[in-house]
Target: 4-hydroxy-3-methylbut-2-enyl diphosphate reductase
Amino acid sequence: MKVKLASNYGFCFGVKRAIKIAEEYDNSATMGPLIHNQDEINRLKNDFKVGLYNNLSDVKDNDTVIIRTHGIPKNDLKHLRTLNAKIINATCPFVTTPQQIVKKMSGEGYSILIFGDADHPEVKGVQSYAENQDDVHIVLEPHDLKNIIFKNNKIATVAQTTKKKEKYLEIVNYLILKNKEVRVFNTICDATFENQDAARELSKEVDVMIVIGGKNSSNTKQLHSICLENCPDSYLIENQTELDNHWFLNKKLCGVTAGASTPDWIIQQVVDKIESIN
Ligand code: F3S
Model:
């Protein structure tokens, strides 16, 4: 089977940076999974003895704690600072930006609207920076805005870094129709756009498309949904063991892309396996 890679795929700047930090601090542990990729987390554990805390209470005196790429809630960070532990912040700078915007704008009396997934660790972290927790709202769809009562007549909005800009524009349009003052911050990350645009183009020209990444990674799931729009035979896998030969029956060209947390060695294993299919 012939394979064509997307012109942009895989690790983004923030993930590369977090992994480099983790490799520098062997025998440390991360607060929450460092990135959304279990295989890479396992590699860091095996090769660099980087462990994982599930709870703040797991942190012991003199531990080295690495803060995950997606960030953690403000009060958790505050609590860690009260402990006798070394804190290494691997939060992606593009995630720190919306945290700081929310802090500043809510401090200036703006109601806060976050476009994102309320259950995502990044969004929970960003939300936690609002001065007034009663006036920070999270929506995934424009119609979710109907039920929201903002406490102020001025609104500031940020987006989860991996969200689609088209949907953000719909949300911003709705806000502007109903409110006098809306401050819009485009906090969506370019790395996501670049991988998405390349996946969109490639999925138009191939017979089957393989998206590699964590099944709980929001940017990988988005890549998959973009590919499905153009190529119904698009599959999301975490590694080469999940490939199914039936997907490639009567197909000539297979496109491959990967989410922003997928390491090159996993991508290479998948490509090798697909190329070996007759
Ligand atoms: Fe950061 Fe963008 Fe990656 S926000 S973690 S560089 S997808």
